[in-house]
Give the backbone structure.
Amino acid sequence: MTARTRRPMVGGNWKMNTTFPEAVRLADDLKRRIGRLRAVDIVVYPPFPFIEAVARRFDGERVTVGAQDLHAKASGAFTGAVSGPQLRSVGCTSVLIGHSERRHVFGDSDVTIAGKLAAALQADLDVVLCVGETLAERDGDRTFAVCERQLASALHGLDATALQRVVVAYEPVWAIGTGRNATPGQAQDVHRFIREWLAGAFGAATATATRIQYGGSVKADNVAELMAGPDVDGALVGGASLQAESFASIIQAVGQAGTPSSKS
Ligand code: PGA
C-alpha cells in the first residue's frame, strides 16, 4: 500500500441542540480537554446563532468552526436562510453539505445540494459533503449506486483543485442517531468505493489525498475499530459531540488510530 498522508479529522455536529450558555460552556469544556491533542483536525458545527461566539472561543486553537448548512445564494430575499459570505464574516471556515437530515427532513434534492456546495466553495468555505444510503436502499443493494449518484451530482463540474477543499463523510442514514453503527467492514467497503469513485472522477492523486469521514452513532467505544479501515480518515459525530468528555475521547482515539504510519 502506498504511504498515507491524510490527516485524521473529527467533526462535532451539534445539530439543533444547546442554548447559547450551553454552547459556550461546551466550547470552553472542549477547549480544556483537547489541549494536548495535536494529531487531529477538529471542527465543531454549532447552531447558526452561536457560530461567532464559539469561533471566538477557539481563536488561536486548533479547532475550527463550521456551519451545518447554507443557502445557495450569496444574499437577497430568502427569509430565514443564511449565506456563505455571512458565515465567512463571523469566523466560520467550513460547512456541512448534504447532511442526511437536510436531505430527508428538509427535502434538499441532489440539485439543491450541488448548488449549496458550489456556493460554499465560492464563499471560500471548506466543505464536508455527506453521502449515505437509507436502510431500504441498503437492503435493496443500492448502497454504492446511491453514494455514487450523490457524489456525482454534488461534485459535477469541479476540478481536482476544488476537491482539495472537500472532505467526504459517509453517513449511512440508518446509523444516524439510532445507536446502530455500521460494522467496521461495512464502513470500509463504502469508503473504499468512494475513494475508487473519486479516483475515476478526479485522478488517483486527488483520491488518495481526499479525507473520508465515517458518521453514524460514533462513540468513544466504537471509533477505534471503525478507524481501523484503511480508507476511514476520521469521524463525523452527532450525539456524542454534545458532551466534551465523550467528544474528546473520540478525538483521542482517532488520533491514536489514525496517524498514517499506524495504518498501512
Ligand atoms: P450521530 O449523528 O452521531 O448522533 O448518529 C451523526 C451525524 O448526524 O452527523
Summary: The chain has a mean pLDDT of 94.
